[in-house]
Amino acid sequence: MLAFAASRPRLALGSLTAICLAAFLLSIPLPRSDGQLLSTDGLGYYCYLPAAVLDHDLDFSTAFRTVRPQGGPLSTARTATGMTPNPWPVGTAVLWLPFFLLAHALAIALNAFGAGIRLDGYGYWHQAFVLAGSIVYGGLALGLAFGVARRVASSASALWATVLLLCAGNLVYYMTAEPSMAHPASAFAVGLFYWSWIRLRGETGLRRPLLLGISLGLIAMVRAQEVLLALVPLAADFVHAAQRQWDGESDAVTTWLRRVLLTAVTAAIVFLPQAAASHVIFGHWWTPPQLFDDLPPGQSFISWSSPHFADALFSAWRGLFSWHPVYALALLGLPPLWRKNRALATAVVVGVLGQAYVIGCWFYWWQGRAFGARTFIGCLPLFAASLAALFDAVAARRALRPRLASGVLLLATLLVAANLLLFLEYRLVLSRSDRPATWHDLGSGRIEFLSR
Prior knowledge:
Distance between the termini: 37 Å
Structural class: mainly alpha
Strand content: under 5%
Shape: globular
Order of helices and strands: HHHHHHHHHHHHHHHHHHHHHHHH
């Protein structure tokens, strides 16, 4: 079965996506305390759709009254323009739009035959279509991460690296239990950027800069801080152009500037929905909506000294490596990745550390109710490339050290099993508690909770 999957990697990734989709669909009939498929942040991403498509405005008061009738600070707060604030960006809703339109069109058609489907956009019908679309974007993100890893490693290594990151990391949670979060869309946008950058490198036409611009605009709309992940690839293109000009290609740098300008203009055009939404809701064009939040007196939203940089990586309270050690395993592939593609290896280091710095600056660095360090999920193609390079290095030494491959397989199996236990513990225990997670929770606690 493993050999069959390795020979058909995209079929294997598609099958895993289908399993995630089936798990979500089967969970829909389960009782929910708030009667919604949307999770906490999911309402903020989702409510752009019924407001803009059905009500033709950006008044979110209806959404908060309908989906969160118990109220909350956002229900009564008002922005400078007198609007109900929505501190979640619009990019995820833009990606979800085709699925929402499909759901609404089918609902109207079925209602003509007496189906009685709710048409205000806040029922299970519309939500199920949209969240299924979110899982589809997660599957596309897996395919794009595999494509990036395939450029620096064998097909088999790229496949198993991607599969392990899904099953032993935290993306699997947001493709099954909480697909209303932005992380599948975020991984898709970053994956599209890196796939366009590495797969189309060397093309002289417009396809590459246009795809880079589209994906960069999507990244800015979905999770603005992940724009930092694009810095190293663009800088690497400049270094490559400067080297070619040094070698005698007189207009190499000028061509690079033109292509970067096209990328920037395309990204700005794609970003326009967010700029327009921010202007209507908050009265300004460029400040990210995430900066709207009611903070305790004297507390700042951002502390540029990044006091929680180490916590974002190592804390028991949502640390990247402490919750999901598979990401630390992936970074062991940096030396072989450096030998194959220095620009991509540099992007891994700068990208992961850069995201840790930004997260450590945030007053809410532990990311609330989250299955691990969810804000790192956008780094999926970077981790996939590094882990695939590690697997290739292990495969190259298999003849010299036969037990090495068996050890890696055993380690991978243990990581997946431990992640499954943590998934269950989080879903059934930790997500219902506001207390910080502890090392006990991440250790024996993930087994002890079963007996309770």
